[in-house]
Amino acid sequence: MPTQESLNHPRLAERDAGHYAITTWTARDVPAIARLEETWAPWLQKPPERFATIASHFPEIQLVAKNENGGVAGSLTTNRIHWDGDPKKLSTWDTVAGGSVSESDYTTTYKTDGNTLFLIAATVDPEVQSKGLAPKLVKEMKKKLSLKAWKI
């Protein structure tokens, strides 16, 4: 489980999501994102090397929320795919992600000309949950993509 120290941020119980900078992932963010993943059940945790691949191949569609100290407090993971908009034709999570949680890094399913951004995961440090950070991440992604013809 992440600790305040491991995520490099003070307890922010009195603050809201307005105090976080939302940016795209970098390779330097991977260890903190992997530590956030430890808040998930063991069978839902992605190995750090998969995050490293995602960060190096698809950073433009991955977001991270950082506090004023630069500590990672949340992340949003997505994959770009083709989809015709019919819910009955939408694949399973494993298919869209390119395999199980432990195997997926989107390299086999990412489409450079895809029309849909598929939300894979949103993770927020338990110490700052219920502060509006997850909706802020989603809103920022929508804003980022507002000029693109992708389904969100």
Q: Any chance you could write out the topology, listing elements then pairs?
A:
Layout: H1 4-7, E1 21-24, H2 30-37, H3 48-57, E2 63-66, E3 72-81, H4 93-97, E4 116-124, H5 133-145
Antiparallel strand pairs: 1-2, 2-3, 3-4
- The SSE order reads HEHHEEHEH
- DSSP helix fraction: 25-40%
User: What global shape is seen?
Assistant: globular
Largest sheet: 4 strands, antiparallel
Distance between the termini: 31 Å
Work out the strand percent: 15-25%
Rounded to the nearest angstrom, the radius of gyration is 15 Å
Instruction: Find the count of extended strands (DSSP E, 2+ residues).
Output: 4
Tell me the strand order in the biggest sheet.
1-2-3-4
Spans of at least 5 consecutive residues whose pLDDT stays below 50 are 1-15
**Mean pLDDT metric:** 83
Number of helices: 5
Secondary-structure-based class equals alpha+beta
Question: Brief overview, please?
Answer:
The protein contains 5 helices and 4 strands.
Write up what this structure looks like.
With 152 residues, the chain is an alpha+beta fold. The chain is 26% helix and 18% strand. It has 5 helices and 4 strands, in the order H-E-H-H-E-E-H-E-H. It has helices spanning 4-7, 30-37, 48-57, 93-97, 133-145; strands spanning 21-24, 63-66, 72-81, 116-124. Strands 1-2-3-4 form a 4-stranded antiparallel β-sheet. Helix 2 (30-37) crosses helix 3. The longest helix is centred in the C-terminal third of the chain and has 13 residues, at 133-145. The N and C termini lie far apart (31 Å).
